[in-house]
Design a protein that fits this description.
This protein has 17 helices and 14 strands. By secondary structure, it is α+β, with helices and mostly antiparallel strands. The two termini are 28 Å apart.
């Protein structure tokens, strides 16, 4: 209810939003804008001259980033569980209930009989003197023709005043109980196949009804339906048992927080124990995030109490308590020393590469051309009319993102920006020009309007 109320408020607010034509044109123009850039790629392997880190540097890094070299704390928990699957095994089938369900099924099948009918309708105009007598006379004449062997469909086409069925020889198709008005239906479902009724009066006029065919759903034998009935009975019984046991489990675990003994004794459940797991990862029931969160909660870990009941799924609930707790411990320095050494080498190398890119940036801002910076370890690429979504033209998405975040420079001081890449290299971006579209299509304007 709360979620729906919030959604209604959000929808109400969003539906009041509007955008002016000026804003739409500006947004569409920005979206269609392209840029000309030069990219100077600085190879980190070439510019990195970082040597082997000293033991002191490694130790300092280790102590400053100790949290990165910790074995996370772990717990294992004892738990009891209730599952619908296990309860289903104890459900006994009531044969009398099976028989009652089959009888109800047979009765429902007979109520789904359908009859294929045709009719001839003679309408009776309201407040027309002698209209009913005239209609009855006409019906009598039609009945005589039927007795003489004339075709019902042909007579319906000639005389019936039901515009919907007359052209089809009076055919009404298959009719089920409840489809027609009561007098018509009572007569139709009392007829024998192939017979024609006496005159039937309804609010629409006078009818002659012909029963063309009868069909009903075949009744499946009990041996076939039994499996369906058993599943239904088990499902109902299990749902009731699951609810009652879950409520009882919640109460007992709360009232006896120090252990699971009372729960096991009164409910006949088995205590299971998980392997140790961290707050981020586990197996079995610990694969569930909600179980891990509660296992590391103050109630369970620090106070040592039973947890509240935890719903793994609508058919699976558990209660847990701590079995074993292993605090977080630091990985010894000697174990991670070589890893830290590699990390420091990469970091220092990236700093050196970034420093080279910054020197080049200062030269460009001072008036040097991009081509004049060509050197070993620097690869230069020029892009024209680069769009916001031209990801296929650029090797690293951060280059495209930063290119459109740059402000336009001046003739005296071009706009340049150094960007660290995922690969470890550094790209120096130089903004050469910003291109605005001559016009924006109606489709693009409509797209902006819908998004706004």
């Amino acid at each position: 209810r709360s979620e729906l109320r919030s959604q209604q408020l959000q929808v109400a607010i969003s539906n009041t939003a509007f955008v002016t034509e000026y804003e739409v044109n500006n947004l569409a123009t920005l979206n269609e804008q392209t840029r000309d850039i030069s990219v100077l790629m600085f190879d980190s392997e070439h510019f990195s001259t970082a040597g082997k880190a000293s033991a002191e540097e490694i130790k300092q890094y280790y102590e400053a980033n100790l949290q990165s070299f910790m074995v996370p704390e772990k717990v294992s928990v004892d738990y009891v569980e209730i599952t619908s699957e296990s309860l289903a095994e104890s459900v006994e089938i009531d044969e009398q209930e099976i028989s009652r369900m089959y009888d109800d099924y047979v009765a429902s099948i007979s109520g789904r009989e359908e009859r294929k009918a045709s009719h001839i309708l003679i309408q009776v105009p309201e407040q027309a003197d002698g209209a009913e007598d005239a209609a009855m006379v006409q019906m009598a004449l039609i009945k005589d023709k039927l007795k003489q062997g004339e075709d019902f469909a042909a007579l319906a086409k000639q005389h019936s005043q039901d515009a919907g069925s007359a052209t089809e020889g009076g055919d009404l198709g298959w009719v089920a109980l409840g489809d027609m008005v009561k007098p018509f239906e009572q007569s139709l479902f009392a007829m024998e196949k192939g017979s024609v009724s006496d005159v039937v009066k309804t609010q629409f006029g006078y009818h002659l009804i012909k029963l063309d065919d009868i069909r009903s759903e075949a009744v499946a034998p009990l041996a076939v339906k039994r499996y369906e009935f058993e599943d239904e009975l088990k499902s109902d019984s299990v749902a009731s048992m699951f609810y009652d046991l879950s409520e009882r489990l919640a109460s007992l675990a709360y009232e006896n927080p120090d252990n699971l003994d009372i729960v096991v004794e009164e409910l006949g459940l088995k205590v299971n124990t998980t392997k140790q797991f961290t707050q981020e990862q586990g197996e079995g029931i610990a694969a569930e995030q909600k179980v891990r969160d509660i296992a590391f909660s103050p109630l369970v870990m620090e106070q040592g109490n039973n947890s509240d009941i935890i719903e793994i799924s609508p058919t699976h609930v558990v209660v847990i308590r701590t079995n074993e707790h292993t605090p977080a411990t630091a990985i010894p320095l000697e174990v991670v020393s070589s890893k830290i050494e590699d990390m420091l080498k990469v970091q220092n190398g990236r700093k050196q590469t970034m420093a080279a890119a910054q020197i080049a940036k200062e030269k460009i801002e001072a008036g040097a051309s991009v081509d004049s910076l060509q050197a070993t370890g620097i690869k230069i690429e020029n892009f024209t009319a680069l769009g916001r979504n031209d990801n296929t033209k650029i090797s690293d998405p951060s280059i495209l993102h930063n290119a459109f975040n740059m402000s336009v420079g001046s003739a005296e001081k071009p706009s340049a920006k150094a960007v660290s890449l995922i690969s470890g290299d550094v790209a120096l971006l130089v903004l050469n020009g910003v291109n605005l579209p001559d016009s924006v299509s109606d489709d693009q304007l409509n797209l902006v309007k819908s998004a706004a």
